Amino acid sequence: MQKNITATIITLNEKKHISGVILNVQKICNEVIVVDSFSSDETCEIARELGAKVIEQKYLGDGGQKAFCEQYATNEWILSIDADERLEDEAIEYLRNFDFENGEYEAYSFRRKSFIGKKFIKQWYPDRVVRLYKNSTCGYNAKGEHGAVICKSYKDLDIDMLHYSFENFGVLVSKADRFAVNLAKVRFNEGKRASWYDPFLHGMGAFLKGLILKGGIFGGIHEWHVAFASAYNSYMKYVVMLEMAENEK
């Protein structure tokens, strides 16, 4: 049973994922909006064939692109989902029977189960994200590397999204460099500056957080790999910030 929810999806060359995510959200949503950053593959064609409305827009950043989607929604409620995410069957059944439209909250968060290949990454769970929200009172921030829904009140729901983050550890490592540089630029432009010890402090902190605080130490060798990658990402972010400060002088 579909409900009056608009699913919004931002894409760039998501041929591999687009049909899966659209078919997934159509189990609960009666409208699907895809905002594409001029894909060179068949992403848009597949989306249209499945009944989604497709709009092409130059990439505005994660938050900016997701905020851009909102103007095309004809429903009050929006479900924002990435192409590599899926609602679990239990989550779909829960939302079908949940009267969120008459509730006291204007937004709801889900847990995310993230994977590298077929390996569930324990230290990244529950990774809560607000994804179901009222378009009239909430919306994505339009600045920053990663978008977030801005709202006054939200409720945590005990339901999960599946997040197929990376195909393998090689992809994780290759994207870590780009993510570190982009995030460093965002933080630097926000006026934040790094000290000489920040790369070491934050790198070690990220490593210990993943293994000890998040329980990754009990999840097998792949959890250690993820912790090292997180440490490297954090370390390089502050290295880049230091370099930008030096160049500024």
Short description:
The protein has 249 residues and is an alpha/beta fold. It folds into 2 domains: 3-166, Spore Coat Polysaccharide Biosynthesis Protein SpsA, Chain A (Alpha-Beta Complex), CATH 3.90.550; 169-248.
Kindly describe this structure.
The chain is built from seven helices and eleven strands. It folds into two domains: 164 residues, Spore Coat Polysaccharide Biosynthesis Protein SpsA, Chain A (Alpha-Beta Complex), CATH 3.90.550.10; 80 residues. It is globular and about 55 Å long. The model has no long low-confidence stretch (mean pLDDT 91). Strands 1, 2, 3, 4, 5, 6, 7, 8 and 11 form a nine-stranded mixed sheet that branches. It has a two-stranded antiparallel sheet with strand order 9-10. It starts with a strand and ends with a helix. The longest helix has 28 residues. With 249 residues, the chain is α/β, with parallel strands linked by helices. One of its GO terms (molecular function) is transferase activity. Belongs to the glycosyltransferase 2 family. WaaE/KdtX subfamily.
List the helices and strands and how they pair.
Blueprint: E1 3-11, H1 18-25, E2 29-36, H2 43-49, E3 53-56, H3 62-69, E4 77-80, E5 85-87, H4 89-97, E6 107-116, E7 119-120, E8 129-134, E9 139-140, E10 149-150, E11 155-166, H5 169-189, H6 198-213, H7 221-248
Helix pairs in contact: 5-7, 6-7
